[in-house]
């Protein structure tokens, strides 16, 4: 099937990376996009922020439960800024992986390929880092988007790009222990997780999962995302 031509364009004056839907400027070629756009991305880029509908908790539960992750969307202005940031970061650092390793991930991890303390994902706390997502999806205000980065490979099915059944159980158990159990009674109703299929990942070289939490005190989130001594060199 022939791909739909990309309709995203860049305004060449003042800000060469500002993404707009204007038809008065040159179109970006598909190969020049900072990451592949989903159909949802293309639709969002045709909207204004006022037209955008934020994902609520029930909708997210349905999306994650059916593994329909391609429909997750960022707010239009956030998606445009994200595309701009990705393009500028790749120009400055060569890749987003290089930027993340220099500025966001633990210095103790060193360089790729990593040598994890454990070959089992999330088994050793020095092998993962819990951070707020710098570029969250368009979520209702009570929902916080967290990313758990890991230097241990999480096995996926090569045919589908989705996690294997064994990996899914490992992630589920980790999320329960690290997040759900810390929230006490009803915690399982306030936490969800997903891992993008390989085809949907904008940062493919670094393993990570997404965790969404609802109505969680900022102090709790700060404890989850703090830097530990074993993450420092």
TrEMBL record:
Taxonomic source organism: Cytospora mali
Name this polypeptide is given: N-acetylglucosamine-induced protein 1
One GO location term (cellular component): cytoplasm
Domain of life where this protein originates: Eukaryota
InterPro entries, A to Z: DUF3605 (IPR022036)
Any matching Pfam family: DUF3605
Any Gene Ontology biological process: N-acetylglucosamine metabolic process
The organism's taxonomic lineage, starting at the top: Eukaryota, Fungi, Dikarya, Ascomycota, Pezizomycotina
């Amino acid at each position: 099937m022939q791909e739909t031509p990309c309709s995203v364009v860049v305004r060449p004056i003042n800000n060469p990376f500002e993404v707009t839907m204007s038809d008065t400027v040159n179109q970006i070629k598909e190969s020049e996009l900072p990451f592949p756009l989903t159909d949802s991305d293309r639709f969002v880029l045709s909207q204004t922020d006022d037209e955008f509908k934020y994902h609520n908790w029930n909708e997210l539960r349905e999306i994650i439960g059916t593994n329909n992750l391609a429909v997750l969307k960022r707010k239009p202005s956030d998606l445009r800024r994200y595309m701009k940031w990705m393009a500028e970061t790749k120009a400055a650092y060569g890749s987003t992986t290089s930027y993340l390793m220099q500025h966001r991930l633990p210095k103790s991890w060193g360089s790729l390929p990593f040598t994890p303390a454990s070959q089992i994902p999330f088994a050793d706390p020095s092998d993962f880092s819990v951070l707020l997502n710098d570029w969250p999806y368009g979520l209702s205000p009570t929902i916080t988007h967290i990313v758990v980065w890991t230097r241990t490979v999480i096995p996926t099915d090569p045919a589908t790009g989705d996690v294997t059944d064994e990996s899914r159980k490992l992630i589920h158990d980790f999320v329960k222990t690290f997040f759900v159990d810390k929230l006490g009674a009803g915690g399982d109703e306030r936490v969800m997780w997903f891992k993008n299929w390989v085809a949907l990942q904008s940062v493919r070289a670094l393993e990570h999962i997404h965790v969404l939490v609802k109505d969680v005190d900022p102090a709790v989130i700060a404890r989850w995302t703090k830097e530990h001594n074993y993450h420092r060199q």
